[in-house]
Amino acid sequence: MVAAKHADDFPSDRYLSVLTRALAERIWEEIDLPKSLLIVPAPSSKKRIESGRYVAGQIAIGVGKELMEIAGVYRRNLVIQVVEALGFVSDGGTQAELSGIERRTNRESQIQARTFFSNETQIILVDDVTATGATLKACVKALETKGAKVIGILVGAISPMSISQT
């Protein structure tokens, strides 16, 4: 996952294809999906988006496509939209060198939902990597504050951060 975000020569298309299929299959098996679903990627920096390395967004789009394909096989009507509904209030900087406590503090007030949702809006939140869950927790809080119901969270990779750092 780190290579997909940082390495120019990493074959991320193939990797993300396999990953998104596996995540979509898991969602299909584990979650009773509503007829209408939003898939929301965790926010990323403007720099990462402009460089084409918004991996959470790529995963969200891939999972949406795969879920639609699976639904077609089972002849189930689903409306799935990938929506960039989250953003940073200001640049919180990189999380890479921070401890778990510092990560949570850094993210708590940095993420906001860009819109209000009806109480029926059900969301699957997607991120590429998690270490402490600070970004995901802030994303869930921002979405739920604006009325959404997060019914699932997908993560492409979990960083092996030690317990002492969290």
Q: What would your notes on this structure say?
A:
It is a single chain. The chain has one domain: Rossmann fold (3-Layer(aba) Sandwich). The protein is an alpha/beta fold. Mean pLDDT is 84; it is low at 162-166. Helix content is 42%, strand content 21%. α2 (12-30) packs across α4 and α5 packs parallel to α6. α6 (134-145) links the parallel β5 and β6 (149-158).
Task: Summarize this structure briefly.
This protein has helices at about 1-5, 10-30, 45-50, 55-75, 100-110, 135-145; strands spanning about 35-40, 80, 85-90, 110-115, 120-130, 150-160. It is of the alpha/beta class and about 170 residues long. It has a single domain, classed as Rossmann fold (3-Layer(aba) Sandwich), CATH 3.40.50.
